[in-house]
Protein: Lipid A export ATP-binding/permease protein MsbA
Organism: Streptomonospora litoralis
Amino acid sequence: MNRRRPAPATPAGLPELATSRFHPWFGDLQRLSLWRMLTRLPALIATALRWSWKASPRDTLLTVGLNIAAGALSAIVLTAVVGILQGLFAQGPTPERLQAALPSLLLAGAAMVTRAALRSAAIWAQGRLTPMVERAVEVELVSLTTATRLEAFDDSDWCDQIHRARTLGVYEAGRITGYAADIATELISLLAVATVVTVLHPVLLPLLALTVAPVGWAAIRSARMRYARMRALSTSNRLLYMYTHAMTEREAAAELRAYAMRPMLLAEFARISDHVRDALLAVVGRQTTTRAVGDVLGGIATLATYAALVALLLAGLMPLAVAGAAYLALGQGKAALDRLMNAVNSCYESGLYLSDLLEAFDQARRRTPPAAGTTSPGPLEELRVQGVDFAYPAAEANALTGVSITVERGRIVALVGENGSGKSTLATLISGLYVPDAGTITWNGTDIADLDPDELHARIGLIRQQYHQWPFSAERNITMAAPGTADPDRLGRALRLSGADQVVADLAHGLDTPLDTRFKDGADLSGGQRQRIAAARGLYPQADLVIADEPTAALDARAEERLFSTFQAAADGAAVLLITHRLASTRSADWIYVLDHGHVVEQGTHTDLITHGGLYAELYGIQAAAYNGATPHRHTEEFL
Ligand SMILES: Nc1ncnc2c1ncn2[C@@H]1O[C@H](COP(=O)(O)OP(=O)(O)OP(=O)(O)O)[C@@H](O)[C@H]1O
Ligand SMILES: [Mg+2]
């Protein structure tokens, strides 16, 4: 289990920005040598090609094939240009020399036109490939993230990783195949130039390599700096994203104004964005220095190359025609090497983001339950929780320790306890969404980990304390808890029992109304109305086990009364686990468990627990006193 010291707090109580420097991967990245990075490139290109192939075999073939063909044509162009020069610089009268150069001239022209056409076609195929790869990668990302265990989302490193994958990885993955194709094109062009210059004079080849190597080194080094900084800034960028969301979306708009949070939010936003800006500016400075060093070294090498050419010419070791061709070939070679370095650089940078994305995929796979159980759960007779311990990934202490409870068909079991005592955590574990660190949860004697998760979820009607209102129609918001098309009878029952029928009756388009005002004809609901919809969602599947976590917190007295009688009626054929602070409602429960700091401290019927005079009796006493008009002495003192 991951145990960390709390990070130093910012004015907003969020992690200090500089702490992101100490993410474990940061040091690794700094230590990774350029050579190792380059040796990883082929594997990254292979992965990129696999993704492209998966997205569209035809466009992958076209992108790679057309680029390679364009590269091959560069070789023809260069050979033809050398032919033109040799023809022109040969001995003899001008018309004859022109005639000698003509075939090469025609060949060069035809090759150039064809190369331009092939390049355009390659750009077209590449343009098609990019969105297709992006989509395939995005689909893979969401299909993996939605399969992970729920705990993954309690881990900030995972949240950072997914944020990077979503915002950068997906985008870069779409581009890497194009860069890989560019590398192939430029390699072929370069091969042609290398052959030509070697034929012209063997010393020209090492000189050519020397000219571009420093520039390439600088470009790759600066890409690495940018990427390392991007990773180091991912927490800050996520914070910025959160702040932007809070300041531009409706959800937080009212609180932002009511609590006069604007100055604090703007100051915090400025502080983080300044931090990001300064970090990026620092990289720009270091990148410029690196590039300048590369350019200066490259310039010196270029001078040396041309000096060598002149020296060869003066020494009579190279005829003028060959020197002219060599000059041209060297220029082309330098341009091709420049483009190759650019392509390697871009490919390498995208590759870094892609490997980060692949790491996110791996992490997601590691956080996915190994093999889902296949046993069919069957109708519930008894659900038993035995000696369960559970701690949240980032928490110091257990949220639950040694918890044992039993819920049987036809019974209402209530779970009570003060805030933070572990009730919702236990409900989430029973639903199979969290996995206990110790102990077992069995469904008719079978560990729920061995049960088919989809079938298990279909047998549990969960009304969560923190429910999400989906931007769907009212009907979909209710029926989404069961797969398949909506069953009108079950829908009618769920609407009636939850009181959501009155909500829907007031909606302009009834069940078809989108429950989100960002959409046309969308409606917004009151807190209690939302809770009725959430209750209807949990009741719709007519599940074997209804887990209702604070289902009436926002309901009016009549709706609350109706929902509790619903649970009693439901308990005829199902089991009900009711979590509530309204202790008047737990009086009729068949059995009550009292949780305190993650332990079951009391259990029994209402009468047993009142007689026992423990925590339950105290909490019940406080509520009853409020209704009887009396105020418990202890609390009066605290409030005065
Ligand atoms: N996602 C989480 N990550 C870390 N700790 C959590 C998380 N959710 C809850 N906790 C902690 O676990 C403990 C139990 O929380 P839980 O939500 O189960 O309490 P509860 O009994 O349902 O409280 P309430 O009556 O307020 O709903 C609390 O200390 C809470 O702060
Ligand atoms: Mg709770």
